[in-house]
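Both lines are quoted verbatim for reference:

——
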Amino acid sequence: MTRLRTLAGLALLGAAVLTATPAHAATNEVTCGGTSSGNTISYSPSLTAASQQTGITYRTMYRGCSSSDPGARSGIAVHTRDRQYSCPALLSTESLAYDIDWMYAGTSSVQVTRTASISGGVLTVQHYGYVASGTFAGSTVYERHTMPAGEIQKCIAGSTNIPSTFMTVTLTISAI
């Protein structure tokens, strides 16, 4: 009798564990990229080699996405900041938080660390982090932005100003 109760208890415990784990937890994933995804950043006033108070508007379009959620085939992230900024600051490491609004799948609020470097004439900006809340919460985020670095290098040297930049973007959100 005791053995029968123990087996019944283990069966109930197993059922509770199975029902407590969402079926979609292992499949939450989005991949966007190619020439159709891009990031435009506008600076007001234009960036210079010297640090100045600058209004910054970020607009990232995520298109051509493959996703486990059909509503996350495209999305957009738009946010603004007002801060001291310059062309050399484009190569800084910083923490960022922003929302990705999916076409029909709600919002992913992400928190990332942004790094940047220039190599082989290309500026590469990378975001590493996670989805803090919303659609795909708890998943990891990796975003990569690239563009030719010529104008950025000229601006760092003080020979030009930059009113805006455009970078191609790849985004991967993966379940842990």
